[in-house]
């Protein structure tokens, strides 16, 4: 196993406050990230259910002022990586929300490229899912 990291950033057509309202709520991931079928928060733990089963996340930091969420997933069974530390941040980019999602994780070298591909796919799906959810709730869905 080796340490690795990956980052994506996507600007979406919602305000930073709207995007942070979804991310900073911590719960409700199942509403904007398709592989997650259910999500609940108990204290500083978030439990997510997928077709592959349930995994838990430790919520490390929710910084509403700087719009940063940090969490840790010790183990999960969706991707060939372990000890994931994730960080989502929302910043303003010309009036829109730019959402960056960073992951630090342990991976076997042979799986590193495919793991980064999977993270990009999940990250893009999640961030665009946030935009879709906000627009749907505002009655702006296409």
Account of the protein in words:
The structure is a single chain. By secondary structure, this protein is α+β, with helices and mostly antiparallel strands. It has one domain: START domain (Alpha-D-Glucose-1,6-Bisphosphate, Chain A, domain 4). It contains 2 helices and 7 strands; from the N terminus they run E-H-E-E-E-E-E-E-H. A hairpin with a 2-residue loop joins strand 2 and strand 3.
Short overview:
With 142 residues, the protein is of the alpha+beta class.
First-to-last CA distance: 44 Å
Overall helicity: 10-25%
CATH architecture: 2-Layer Sandwich
β-strand number = 7
CATH topology assignment: Alpha-D-Glucose-1,6-Bisphosphate, Chain A, domain 4
Poorly predicted regions are: none
Order of helices and strands: EHEEEEEEH
Provide the domain count: 1
List keywords for this structure.
Alpha-D-Glucose-1,6-Bisphosphate, Chain A, domain 4; 2 helices; 7 strands; alpha+beta; 45% strand; 142 residues
How is this fold's topology laid out?
Blueprint: E1 2-12, H1 16-23, E2 38-42, E3 45-50, E4 53-63, E5 68-73, E6 81-93, E7 96-107, H2 112-137
Antiparallel strand pairs: 1-7, 2-3, 3-4, 4-5, 5-6, 6-7
